Amino acid sequence: MTKLAIVILNWNGLAYLRRFLPFVTENSQGEHIALWVADNYSSDRSLEYIRESFPEVHILEFDRNYGFAGGYNRALAAIKADYYILLNSDVEVTPGWTVPLLELMENNEDVAACMPKIRDLNRRDYFEHAGAAGGFIDYLGYPFCRGRIFDKVEKDAGQYDDEREVFWATGACMMVRSAHWHMAGGFDERFFAHMEEIELCWRLKNAGKRIRVVPSSVVYHLGGGTLPANNPRKTWFNFRNSLLMLLLNLPPAKLYLLAIRMALDWLSVVKFLSVFSFANAFAVIRSHISFFSLFPEYFRKRQKLSGRENVVLHKEIYPKSIVLKFFSGRGKFFSSIDF
């Protein structure tokens, strides 16, 4: 069985494959490494390009677009390896990038997932939004990173070069132990394409596993390839999926936090309306409607997960409001947060 499978999920990403796949093939050499592209029913010439230019890359073809979550669930169910790397098609990898990640996993059996340091491809000395130097959330489920809080992205001056425990690893480039992936059941497919990696990492931590960041491995992410930040569909996914994540994973005594989070969501509606972003305001409202329609199903899922050994507010969850910290001007940088 392959030790490491690097799996790129593709959907009409021919331009990304042409630009970034050569870096992956060149910088991911080794008898123990297999390269895969799982295709979500692309209509461009993605697969023809791979077959013509990179015959060493294995291909999985799906019968429709299953999204990020469903696509990876189907891909990893079909690929046998000790470890997987989930890699976005718009990531430029560097020489030796897999070595520190694999060494960490080989030497720490309780680590379920890890990630490299993610820099911005267009501003190469800055962190990138989707992951930066490791992911965290606050007690109300708002995500942030070492090196990025909301839209404030820091320059990488080595300030976060220590390997450490984090709350979540980015789906842009995540190494996950296959045994833990399959034990957890992979991504929640209803999440489709946003926050699914955060929810999975929370489930893994509730099962007693650890998540780490390994800054000695560096990759560069283009970002924004799925939906732009102000897209109403992205707003809908992020708000709804955040509520579902809280419902699934909060400790029983902390479920009341859902009500606080939903009240804050309505403040977001007011903010969107104040800047005439009516589509995004309506997207937040629709996210709540969808959440309530799914509430019975997800409450049952929560009950099935109730036997987990470590359902607590983990120390990697910021116990205060990152929103208040940030907008008060006292939490623009991760290093200024009293974690």
Tell me what you see in this structure:
The structure is a single chain. Helix content is 39%, strand content 21%. The mean pLDDT is 94. A hairpin with a 4-residue loop joins strand 7 (135-138) and strand 8. It has two domains: 2-221, Spore Coat Polysaccharide Biosynthesis Protein SpsA, Chain A; 232-336, no CATH class. It is built from ten helices and 14 strands. The strands form three sheets. Strands 1, 2, 3, 4, 5, 6, 11, 12 and 13 form a nine-stranded mixed beta sheet that branches. Helix 6 runs parallel beside helix 7 and helix 8 (257-274) runs antiparallel to helix 9. By secondary structure, it is of the alpha/beta class.
How many helices? The count is 10
- Assembly type: single chain
Estimated radius of gyration: 19 Å
Question: Helicity range of the residues?
Answer: 25-40%
The ordered H/E elements are EHEHEHEEHEEEEEEEHHEHHHEH
What amount of the residues lies in strands? Answer: 15-25%
- The name of the CATH superfamily of the largest domain reads Spore Coat Polysaccharide Biosynthesis Protein SpsA, Chain A
SS elements, strand count: 14
Mean pLDDT: 94
Rounded to the nearest angstrom, the distance between the terminal CA atoms is: 41 Å
Number of domains: 2
- CATH architecture descriptor text of the largest domain: Alpha-Beta Complex
Output the CATH topology of the largest domain: Spore Coat Polysaccharide Biosynthesis Protein SpsA, Chain A
What about the largest sheet? 9 strands, mixed
